[in-house]
Amino acid sequence: MAVVSIFILLILAVVIGGFLVFTKRLAESKKNKEMGEISTERTIPSEGAGTKKNQSAVETGLKLQITSPSDKSVVTSPYITLRGKTVAQAEVFVNDKELVADQDGNFSVSLTLDEGDNPIIVVANDQNGNVGETEITVSYETSE
């Protein structure tokens, strides 16, 4: 029973630590936007040929790529499915949602957008403490 309790405490510590990293980066991102700072555009290497462009990225040892939707997309539905790829079993935080990548590193999450620009911040971390972060903006425009 003690081993199970220690295991549960360890998992809680990892989840809480990942959440704290995510909220800190989210707050920093909001602060930078409020201060009018301009983020630099970087490319994120993908497996195979080519790169994924137009995503602001901060990477510290962890591959993280949003495959759909693309940055600066304009949609006419408030509901989208964000898809991406990182390392297998990484914890992934998409705005206020937490999920785990599958055994191939794929992840997806349904999001509800507000009218106008919607910044989407994705942070992933693995068991070794490596972190990857990227941000895109998706605009929802009503057809009225």
Tell me what you see in this structure:
The chain has 144 residues and is of the alpha+beta class. The protein has one domain: Immunoglobulin-like, CATH 2.60.40. The chain is 23% helix and 44% strand. It is built from one helix and ten strands; from the N terminus they run H-E-E-E-E-E-E-E-E-E-E. It has one helix spanning 2-34, and strands at residues 42-45, 51-60, 65-68, 73-75, 79-85, 91-94, 97-100, 106-112, 116-125, 131-140. Strands 1, 2, 4, 6, 7, 9 and 10 form a seven-stranded mixed sheet that branches. Strands 3-5-8 form a three-stranded antiparallel sheet, with no helix packed on it. The longest helix has 33 residues, at 2-34. The radius of gyration is 16 Å and the shape is elongated. Mean pLDDT is 77; it is low at 33-59.
